[in-house]
């Protein structure tokens, strides 16, 4: 096969290349980058120099420059699967998932048995919410070469789909192949937790911490378990070790629930007066409750006046007579194999596992797009508001979670908040009609819940009375619950959380 014309251009001699190669092979990436840049200026058509630059800059987290140099190398030798693979990794680090997908597919087209490329393709598909395709890619990678990481990644995608039993099987297989796989132990524990099997979940967290006492996820999960168990002082220790996600808010929560009010106020004031924007809904919940409890000014400004930011609207495609979308949603809820997540706050009902809007069913996908539009309408309605809820409104609309809740006679959901949300909401598909009281089955929101310590009972509440096809959106800082209903009917809604993309915890790549 004839070489590209550029390959006949002047090339550096072995003597000229030796210093660059020596630095690169010694792992001195910054020095190798500098030396390669000097040489490539003299020999601009040298494949290996662009390759060295790309790999060095990748290792130095200079991802934009690395992508540029990988691309230049590929213009010289386009049929190099390893380079397409490396470019895919770099583009993934830049969150350019569609381009990364194309790079991995080129690598696979050139080398069908490139199992790492199949695995990484699964990762970028998973990050785009294309779970069915991700599972297919992960399975293909495992069919070529079975390894612990392949089983782990497949387990994460299956868990996102709500396929907890199957996810558990793959996490166990990853551990069987590599017993010291700390992340697999932790994710196995999370699956057990989602099934309500806390005994096995805690064992997995301890197994993780035995392998790595500083494992962020396992420390966080233990902290979460302990604060739910009311062992607040112990929980703080684990949360502070985790430094993960909203650990600071949860540690402050434990201090408040333990009624260490002086310590709570000192820590809260330190946060309020710090340099960080007031962008934590959970801190708003705590700050507002403390202010109402003790009659002081609420100084946290994510959304001080949450009641003013409750939004209710009818979705035409669901509210219209004989709505096909409503029929499709109920059909998929009733007839699709969606696993159920253990949820202690639900009485006489159940909640789906996984992320509903990332499932393949067209009805859920369509509703997800409608809800995204309603988020934009929400932002426009409250434009100009002097709070971070609106000023720092997410630029990229991504659901951290979405699920259905089905309640039967006597069913309700206890007062709670969505700690990992920004804006939360629900779309109502079925509501009880035979009511003894007009508020039965309604949505109640307020400033108190979760057995927070109270100095008095003067905590206001508001009520939204939805109709079928309505959407209700509200700041995730507000407590909310379902008012119990007594009729022999069902109440079905699809709930969801939105959070800024930068705040979402994303799994590691393949």
Automatic annotation (TrEMBL):
PROSITE patterns: TPR, TPR_REGION. TPR repeats lie at residues 47-80, 81-114, 148-181, 182-215. SMART domains: TPR. Gene3D superfamilies: q2cbj1_9rhob like domain, Tetratricopeptide repeat domain. Pfam families: 2OG-FeII_Oxy_5 (PF13759), TPR_1 (PF00515), TPR_11 (PF13414), TPR_16 (PF13432), TPR_6 (PF13174). Keywords: TPR repeat. The keyword Transmembrane helix does not apply. Coiled coil: none annotated. This is TPR repeat-containing protein. It comes from Methylotenera versatilis (strain 301).
